[in-house]
Design a protein that fits this description.
heterodimer, A: alpha/beta, Rossmann fold, Alpha-Beta Plaits, 38% helix, B: mainly alpha, 12 helices, 78% helix
Chain lengths: 313, 254
């Protein structure tokens, strides 16, 4: 049994003049919480549609739990649950009827449909409104209903396309908590999001995509560490120190004054910190504050996208 | 692949098609205005036939049967695909293990049910006007085949990959009304010119109306077995064509 949940090889998709997905390859491990990040129009939704067998690529291959999505789409779809960005529930059907309909699509026996729908609706705090038409639901409730529909077949992989986009804080919290719990129980999660803080908190690994190409793929922490140029140390001394002298003594190329602090940029925080301690001792200074700053995922994201744009120019 | 698995897969797809039909009926057919329209249309058609004309009821009822089943089975079906493209519910359905042919078959089942239900109207009118049904079993069979055939036509009409239901309804009207005039509904096949009769053979409604006349008068222009056979062939051809053409356009809907 393979440990790979999703395997994507040389995937390409073109819409007339736009190369939406441009030769991407990656793998997602079983049980992994995988984030797919990118700006609007980067190719995230197109990729998710291809992985879920809705859209056909121009070339390349997709395997989901060792099933080829292009050759056996129905079999592959039995293993997946999909939460699209838009609320495409049947508005003139009740929450309950929407779930029963999905249960029939996955060929679940009646007892299972009823049992699972009841549990899911209770878990997502919708059971009391199960007989209400979906069109009467708020945006957050519709999204929760979509997640219930995606989980009804007990999928091995859950695809989530911007699941918390535009929702209130409470709905976001409920959704994140429950998805995290499902992931802990063994479901592989493939998440596309604009919300980098969300990706940072939830994902084991993330891929950054732009213009249909994957630019980076790694754990959020490794990506932050890789982004050496934006590592820095903020330091405050008890006496006046001249900036250029400090740069020279510590052999650093970039530093700036930020209020009464010095921000020292480095690609090796450990070495710089050791030098800083030596410098303080030699100059008979006292350190009033020291703060090691690592970049946020957002910093990394901005840097990676910027780098690609510069490369393109 | 093992034959047993293939049969099981096929049966599962049929069950999914039935679920699609139930969903369609719930969302698009089981609505007050649609049902009222379904009942009123044959009555209006009856009035337009009767007023100012001396028609034998046994000649009238076959035409009414043809028009009612034809209009009922093709009234909503063409709009379902563009509507679901627009609301993105088609994408939701396509993300499940259902095949495209099963989705289309489900849409056909829903239209078919609608056609069958409203065929009761001309039947009641016939009973009221004391029209004798000479072959009740054939009548049931022909309503079933005819309704399925016209329902298949309705999903074929929804092939253009638009998300605007009104565009498809316009196209649908452009095709349905001329078919009504060339199918021997208003004038029996025996009274049509050779050219008109030749043209009428391209319409499935021609064969349905011809059998209906045989059921009430005992006389048909074509042998009844030919009418039934051609209607069956139309069912296969229209549904097959709908599946092939939707297969070609479905990606443009996403």
């Amino acid at each position: 049994m393979s440990e790979v949940a999703i395997k994507v090889s040389n995937l390409k998709k073109r819409f007339e003049k736009i190369q939406a997905v441009n030769d991407i390859s990656f793998q997602v491990k079983k049980g992994e919480f995988f984030g797919f990040l990118g700006p609007n129009g980067a190719g995230k939704t197109t990729t998710i549609r291809i992985l879920t067998g809705i859209l056909k690529p121009n070339s390349g291959d997709v395997n989901v739990t060792d099933i080829n999505v292009l050759k056996q789409p129905s079999k592959a779809k039995e293993k997946m649950g999909i939460v699209p960005e838009i609320s495409n529930v049947y508005m003139d059907m009740s929450a309950w009827d929407n779930l029963m309909f999905m249960g029939k699509m996955y060929a679940l026996p009646k007892e299972q449909r009823i049992e699972r729908a009841t549990k899911l609706l209770k878990r997502f705090e919708l059971y009391g409104r199960r007989n209400d038409l979906a069109k009467k639901f708020s945006k957050g409730m519709k999204k929760r209903l979509l997640i219930c529909m995606a989980l009804l077949n007990r999928p091995e992989i859950l695809f989530l396309d911007e699941p918390t986009s535009g929702l209130d804080v409470e709905s976001q919290r409920i959704i994140r908590q429950i998805i995290r719990k499902y992931n802990e129980d063994g479901i592989t999660v493939f998440l596309t999001t604009h919300n980098l803080e969300e990706a940072n908190r939830l994902c084991d690994r993330v891929a950054i995509i732009n213009n249909g190409k994957i630019l980076e793929i790694d754990t959020p922490e490794t990506l932050k560490l890789k982004s050496k140029k934006i590592q820095s140390i903020d330091v405050k001394f008890d006496k006046v120190v001249e900036l250029n002298a400090l740069k020279s003594e510590l052999s650093i190329k970039s530093a700036k004054k930020v209020g009464d602090l010095f921000r020292l940029y480095t690609n090796d925080q450990h070495t710089l910190f050791c030098k800083l301690v030596d410098y303080v001792r030699e100059q008979d200074l006292r350190l009033l504050s020291v703060k090691m700053l690592v970049p946020s995922l957002e910093d990394v994201f901005v840097q990676v996208i910027k780098k690609q744009k510069m490369g393109a120019k | 692949m093992d034959r047993g698995i293939l049969v099981k897969d096929f049966m599962q797809q049929i069950k999914r098609a039935l679920a699609i039909a139930k969903k369609d009926i719930q969302n698009y057919y089981k609505r007050g205005p649609v049902i009222i329209f379904g009942f009123l249309t044959p009555l209006f058609l009856l009035m337009s036939f009767l007023i100012g004309r001396e028609l034998e009821p046994s000649m009238l009822i076959p035409s009414l049967f043809g028009m009612t089943v034809f209009f009922s089975a093709t009234s909503i079906g063409p709009a379902v695909f563009p509507w679901e493209t627009r609301t993105k519910t088609l994408e939701r359905v396509l993300s499940t293990p259902i095949t495209l042919w099963a989705i289309l078959l489900g849409d056909v089942f829903a239209s078919f049910t609608f056609g069958i239900v409203f065929s009761i109207v001309p039947l009641i009118v016939g009973i009221v006007l004391n029209v004798s049904i000479l072959h009740p079993l054939i009548l049931i069979i022909v309503i079933v085949i005819g309704s399925f055939c016209f329902s298949s036509l309705s999903v074929l009409l929804s092939v253009p990959p638009t998300d605007q239901p009104h565009q498809i309804m316009m196209l649908s009207s452009l095709i349905r009304f001329p078919l009504l005039f060339i199918s021997g509904v208003f004038v029996p096949l025996s009274q049509l010119s050779d050219f008109s009769r030749f043209v009428s053979y391209i319409s499935p409604l021609t064969y349905f109306t011809d059998i209906s006349r045989w059921i009430t008068t005992g006389v048909s222009f074509l042998p009844v077995w030919v009418d039934v056979l051609v209607l069956c062939l139309f069912c296969v051809a229209l549904l097959g064509l709908a599946i092939i053409l939707h297969g070609k356009t479905i990606q443009k809907r996403l």
